[in-house]
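pasting DUF3073 domain-containing protein for the record, 85 residues
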Amino acid sequence: MGRGRAKAKQTKVARQLKYNSGGTDLSRLANELGASTSSQPPNGKPFEDDEEDDPYAQYADRYDADDDEDEADGQSPSSSRHHDA
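structre below
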């Protein structure tokens, strides 16, 4: 094992002994790991789950509508393709 791996292993074991010995002090662990205590996201902007900005959702809607039209015509997408040998 290289020195970096050995040091990481020692740090891991030390943390396990320190925090898994019964009464875990989660606030101390968070401070040691550098966790933020604020409720704001790290970049300071609130997160909004918006499908309007999601290009995948737009493509999914577009191609889902195309598939529905093909099924209504009685054609499957694979039957309308021609394969050259």
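The first helix runs from residue 3 to 19.
The two ends are 55 Å apart (CA to CA).
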